[in-house]
């Protein structure tokens, strides 16, 4: 596991040195169940390894933290090669709801937390969570509309400031 948490550093005197990963910054731009859970699992995994983690929710990713929408997320059935169904079938009425229901049933059987429960876990573990100001303004969303654990609504530039420094990695989900 140590190799995963270390990043190759430039050679000094011909010897490669490894530097620890200090922080993981995730950008979530979509609120499909598959994207949300991937982001949350990676952020939670970082915290479990003692690595700082931050999530920036932008554009449709804001639905993952919107109080009225976060428990009603769906899985994308059209244009999702991981579904292994033809696009035409994925677009049939009711297919997205059916696939989402099946996914939730499978996650429940595996005892995975709901989106809201996962947000509570992330918040309690110290994951910093931010809404995107441009997207919030565009969709007329205020901080009051969002999950209570959102630290603030910030600009992209502000988020980039958080992501600066040695040992910081950014992942777009």
User: Which homologous superfamily in CATH is the superfamily of the largest domain?
Assistant: DsrEFH-like
Class by SSE composition: alpha/beta
With strands numbered from the N-terminus, the spatial order across the biggest sheet is 6-5-4-3-7
Reported for the largest beta sheet, the result is:
5 strands, parallel
Strand content: 15-25%
The overall strand count is 7
Structure description:
With 173 residues, the protein is α/β, with parallel strands linked by helices. It has 2 domains: 109 residues, DsrEFH-like (Hypothetical Protein Ychn, Chain: A, 3-Layer(aba) Sandwich); 37 residues, no CATH class. Helices cover 34% and strands 22% of the residues. The protein contains 6 helices and 7 strands, in the order βββαβαααβαβαβ. Strands 6-5-4-3-7 form a 5-stranded parallel β-sheet. α1 runs parallel beside α4. It is globular.
